[in-house]
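USER:
Make up one protein:

ASSISTANT:
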Amino acid sequence: MSLTMYEASIPAFVGMLTTLSKILDSGEAFAEGKKIDPSVIINARLAADMLPLSRQVQIACDAVKGAGARLAGVEPPSHPDTETTFSELKARIQTTIDFLNSLDKAKFEGAEDRTIAQPIGPNKIEFPARVYLFEFVIPNFYFHATTTYAILRHNGVDIGKPAYLAALGPYFGR
């Protein structure tokens, strides 16, 4: 049996989103422990022209909920991008996980042969589904997840690579 579009996407997305929520827990604990206003961390950036941590999380969630929906041929849910606290960001992640877990695997059948229309700004770009998933969504998702991690590390949160790879815990005896 060959790898399905569902197997190539949803389990990894759910795993990394779960990890993202856990590293946000670390960011929140760090802010509390150091008596830093949490909004300082949530609005932190790696560079002045980059988006803040909150937006990195929102975009990571949007990338995978949109991908899951488009590959399954259903309408993606809409979120207003109003999260300003760690709790709200973690709720956004959980809502995304719940949506991904609700997708019917059977709806992904034949997805590899579909054309996916992805809105980007005022335009829609059409991709073969395989290109969409492997060359657009996956790199975009991991970019924003990694940037969230990097913003937290840059601001002093004591997390390392094992925290980022936490979803692989069963393979490392954890």
Summary: The domain at 10-172 is CATH 1.20.120.450 (Four Helix Bundle (Hemerythrin (Met), subunit A)). The mean pLDDT is 93. The chain is about 55% helix and 5% strand.
